[in-house]
Each structure stands twice: as structure tokens, then as C-alpha cells.
Amino acid sequence: MRIIKRINEEKLKQNLDIIKERLKDGVGIIAVVKSNAYGNGDVLVSRVIERDVQMFAVSNVQEALRLKQGGITKDILILGHVEEEYITEILKHDFIQTIASIEKAENIEQVLSDVHGKMRVHIKVNTGMNRNGFNYKLPEKILDLKKLAHIKVEGIYSHLAYGDCLEFSKKQESRFDELLEHLKKENFEVGVRHLLNSAGIFNADLKQYDAVRPGISLYGYYPNKEVKVKEKAKKGKMLRPVLSIESEIKFVRRISQTGIVSYDGRFVAPCDMTIGVVPVGYDDGYSRAFSNKANVIIKGVKCKVLGSICMNAFMVDLTKVLEKGEKVKVGDKVTLLGEEGRVRITADDLAKIARTISYEILCNFKF
């Protein structure tokens, strides 16, 4: 064993149940499993929850194909841009493609001009995120889709820019409604309407429309600290992290006082001590930002990472384990992410060290 990734299926199902409890009757779930389900494993996650969701959302055609090859039969929505060479592939597999501009829609129409069939699409609308999507102020651009014989509109959506600013989210909601009302007056069928991501789902003041798109919340994390604090105050069920990552001790080494550990001498032993070598490094997504700061769990004890994280390894202080009277040997389990009894290390903990967000920590693990 060098690295083992484990998914707790029960926690995943419980997280989905918590999300469902917040939804009104008839509101569907579009489970976001892009970027390998935020590092959790897209095929495995999708298999576990397929019965309870309306469809899945991924970033690109390669991710969609992986789900299909993994036996997923529910609809798959591709959120990202489609390169011209993959357009016929998407039609062939009956995936649903996001359309974010009339130019891309016309490009698809041109490629499919000699092909029988229509590409199923959801329209992406820019209501304030300013990343991609049709301008909500220009509904005529969307109405032009009626002219395209190979485009079949089955949905329309936008994306919230803030996780903790209700005022701006309501502004985006209002812009989305404004556009929907205009399209309705023109008898333009939009299909499934969806706006809310994880942050939006946990805000009762926002409209849920026909479906919601949970991502990070499926995997046991709140989109930000503010949402987590509010949910904790309700004293109800809390989301629980699904992913655990384990490795093992490859070497146990005794070093003398003033001995350095790892590159650049960023850790100097204050006394004679015993350290362990773990065969995981920044090439695996265990960031150099964790150098001298992160902890791992060995035999139920938190152990400090010592010195710089290397490309394929890092070192840990075994002092606290030995002080408990435990022996540490090659092959002993090391938990990088997860829990042992009441001792826990989460992506939020690591994100705080690296001054980033849990999303990035989870997505960075490449195994």
C-alpha cells in the first residue's frame, strides 16, 4: 500500500438525505460529480446515489464517457465548453451539452448539418458571475436557438457567484426570473430550470426552481464557514466528510538533536527523536503548503508533519505515539484525511493551513 482512497458510502447517502430534506416537493437533484467528484471518485459516487438523483453534471465529454463506461444510465449534463471534434460524440451518447453562446450553438448546428438527430442542450445564462453564459439582458440571442434544427433545448440555468451574500444571490435570482418571464412571453420552452448550488440549497430564502445542483455538500463539506455555523446552530444533522486517504510508514528513523529533516533544513530536531517517512508528496496533491504545519493520524494520535513536503514523500514526528507506549513499525497505517475514533483531519483543516478552500484540497488529490 502506498496510498488508499476510501469512500464512506453511508455518509454519502446521509449527506444526500440532508440535502433532500431541504428541498420542496418535486425539486430534482442534479448531482455535480465533475473533477472526479471533487476528488472523491466519480464512478463510485455516481453508482451509490444514482437511484436518488435526476441526473449528473460533469465538466467535459471525457468525464461523461467515464460515467457511461462505468455503467451510469441516468442523464449526464456537460457543464463545460465542447470542442468541435467532440460534438458528434456527445450526440452519439445522448449526453446533454451546455450552450453558453449563440456562436457555439451555431457551430454545433454546422457540424451536425448532415447528421440525423438533435443535440440535447441546457442554456447557460450569465446573471452576474461573469464567467460564461448568455447575457440575461439579451433574450433575443436565446430566441435565435429556435432557428437551429439540430438543437433541442431541455433546460436553462445560471450559477451563483457568492456563497455568503444573499443580497447578490437575490439579484441574480431576479435577473434569472426576468429572463425566464421574457422567454415565456415568447412561448420559448426552457425545460428544467436550475440555479442553486450547495450554498444556495442551504439558504431558504432562494428559489429552488425545478432542480438544484449540489456539489461540495454531497461530499460532506459546507461551501463556507458561515453556512456551516448556521447549520450547526440548528442542532440538526450535519454533513459528514465522505473521503478518507491513507498511506503507511515506509521507514522509521532515529535522528539526533540538531539533525535536519527534509529540504532546506526547515525543521531542526530540538532533541533526539524518532520520525517516520510516508510515501506521499506534492506530486500526489499533498501540498508543500502543509510543510511543518499539517498533521496525520497514526494509531489514533495526531502526528506533526516535519520539514518540507517532498515530491513523493514527507516525514512525521512519532514522539506522541511512542509516549503512549505504542510501537511504530514499517507498514503501520497513516491517515492523511479522515478519522480514527474521535481524532479527525478534514479538508477544511488542510485548507486553513494552505489558505485555500476545501474544494481545492479535495480536487488536488490525484489518486
Mean pLDDT: 96
Q: What amount of the residues lies in strands?
A: 15-25%
Number of helices: 13
The value of Rg in angstroms is 24 Å
Q: What fraction, in percent, of the residue positions are helical?
A: 25-40%
Which structural class best describes the helix and strand composition? Answer: alpha/beta
Number of separate strands: 20
Beginning-to-end CA distance, first to last residue: 12 Å
- Poorly predicted runs are none
User: What general outline do the C-alpha atoms trace?
Assistant: elongated
Largest sheet: 9 strands, parallel
Structure in words:
The longest helix is centred in the middle third of the chain and has 20 residues, at 166-185. Helix 12 (347-354) crosses helix 13. The chain has 13 helices and 20 strands. It starts with a strand and ends with a helix. The chain has helices spanning 9-21, 34-38, 42-49, 61-69, 87-92, 102-111, 139-143, 166-185, 198-201, 225-233, 319-323, 347-354, 358-364; strands spanning 4-7, 28-32, 55-58, 75-78, 96-99, 119-126, 134-135, 151-157, 192-194, 211-212, 243-248, 251-255, 260-261, 267-268, 273-278, 295-298, 301-306, 314-317, 333-340, 343-345. It is elongated, with a radius of gyration of 24 Å. Strands 2, 3, 4, 5, 6, 7, 8, 9 and 10 form a 9-stranded parallel sheet that branches. With 367 residues, the chain is α/β, with parallel strands linked by helices.
